[in-house]
Amino acid sequence: MATPQLSTTTKKRNKSSANGVSSSEKGKLGQWGRAWEVDWFSLVSVILLLCLAPFIVFYFVMACDQYQCSVTAPVLDLYSGKSTLIDIWNRAPSFRWSAAKIYAIWVSFQIVLYMCVPDVCHKFLPGYVGGVQDGAHTPAGIVNKYEINGLQSWIITHILWFANAYYFKWFSPTIIFDNWIPLLWCTNILGYAVSTFAFVKAYLFPTNKKDCKFTGNFFYDYMMGIEFNPRIGKWFDFKLFFNGRPGIIAWTLINLSYAAKQQELYGQVTNSMILVNVLQAIYVLDFFWNEAWYLKTIDICHDHFGWYLGWGDCVWLPFLYTLQGLYLVYHPVQLSTANSVGVLFLGLVGYYVFRMTNHQKDLFRRTDGNCIIWGKRPAYIPCSYNSVDGSRHQSKLMISGFWGVARHFNYTGDLTGSLSYCLACGFGHLLPYFYIIYMTILLVHRCIRDEHRCSSKYGKDWKRYTDSVPYRLLPGIF
């Protein structure tokens, strides 16, 4: 959508805010991306996250390294005086140049695959959409082009991983686990470096000035980002690369390294470790198979690139999304046949609901409702909205299929799959269940964000829609 051009007279009549955008301009520009201004609650939340998130990651990693994955033991040690924070810090493995070399090679390799190896998978994989694809319109009216080759990068990376493990033997398959804490320092360095670079870039040489949002508050702008789609050159897109390459491609490699370590320590890989590897690999492969579709999601279409994405994708994702595998290295769990089948079934059901819900929405959009969902033509709520240039548009909100069960039933499927990863670890410790707790908070918050945006966009039509589909995630409950 094109950003409206206000006349000089209009600009003079309106009092400018601290970030150079007048109140009337903000109204016309709408609520794309993050907020224009920062309320006290948002500011406090941002500062708390900036301060606490790195320590949360450190806490969980140290709990495994020093306390056999007990979440409560470090607190009890500190409370009783058996240990101090300095003791825990001093026992942590320090930064190592060997780990920095490993991580630099890893990130550089992914950059090469992203920038220099055009996708060929779409030429021989039926149904896969790859190659050069258009993103959504940015608020400035720009349509960025993306080289969709994440699936190809994942395949190449894993072929080389297995070729090394069984043939070349350049390094041990346990290399990631063996350098896990030194790699934590390396990922933090990159996370803060790229976040700071994006922050400075937005002021000095933004990719597109009209796709920037300045609140004038350092902490909020640094965390939530200023630029919508920061890029270097034509193709290196910060948001797509960091959202989808070093962290997510590494996710399955990290789990494989955990499995290799379990084999080294105990002489076998437990069925619970296999389940975690398989179920999370399905999720990762689904992400890359649908990478072109991902260009139309909230992450790409609404989030700005700041510390939240830059540091989060470098540190939070690889270290906390893989806690189940890490836990199983320290506490191998061999599930009974019934329990392992139950966990697998739950994970596959969650994936099916997640994928089919998204498929139904995509099919409805592509065909403008001229399709069959659950054996019949889908019902919908007709609605309208104004774009930033003042023009009126017509749209449809589907109330059939999974979208008639709950307004965000894809999130319900995602949470079901997330729960299966945790249940694979048994009930010996709380630590593996951090993931489902975190994902519940994240997706509920995303529900509220999305619905606030939709309410502002569709007005009374959104109320008609919520009356028809009253629940967000769980029918009869929420």
TrEMBL record:
Segments passing through the bilayer: 40-61, 151-168, 180-200, 305-323, 335-354, 418-444
Subcellular location as annotated: Endoplasmic reticulum membrane
Annotated membrane topology: Multi-pass membrane protein
EC number(s) on file: 1.3.1.21
Residue span of region Disordered: 1-27
UniProt family annotation: Belongs to the ERG4/ERG24 family.
Name of this chain's protein: 7-dehydrocholesterol reductase
